[in-house]
Specification:
- Pfam families: RsiG.
- By secondary structure, this protein is mainly α.
- It has one domain.
- It has six helices and no strands.
- α2 runs parallel beside α4 and α2 runs antiparallel to α5.
- The longest helix is centred in the last third of the chain and has 42 residues.
- It starts with 12 loop residues before the first helix and ends with a helix.
Amino acid sequence: MTSVSPSPTPAGGAAVDALLDPGLLEGVESRAMGEVRGLRRRAEQEEVNLSYTRRLLQGRLDIVRRELQRRAEHDGRSLVDLLPEILAEKGRGPAHGLGRHQTVQPAAPEVYESWVHGLTPDVDLSDVAGLPDADLERAARALAAAEGSLSERRRGVQQVMDALAGELARRYRSGEADVAALLADEGRH
């Protein structure tokens, strides 16, 4: 009998939940400039964290799927021999990111690594080639489901970032905000 693992905490946990709260952006046009900038920085940090987590998760998923494919095709090469092919960007479809330039690093990468590891608690992925097909298939399903959910949450955070950036841009265009004050404020940080 296969054990059923509890659903993992959604990617990004409470910090992302707070950003995805529909009420977060209500009345944003009347909030103080510093508050809007602070929300934008929070959203940017969480987007970076989610992007990092997605890359970790996708790497594991690519390896598991390729091992299943190797077995199905009776490919005599070892998984280690296939790693360059697995990890090459050419092996994946087109990127679905928005091409954002990231100036922020992931906070506490070990937390995201632990989250990804926890997606397959009953399947030790440290020896993928030694696992039975059923375990690999279960791991692939769990990782794929988590990747879909994570990507959806990441898109939501990106929409919040865009809304906040749009509000900041609106204020500068309308003259409600002063670029000199922004530069002075940035110089203090």
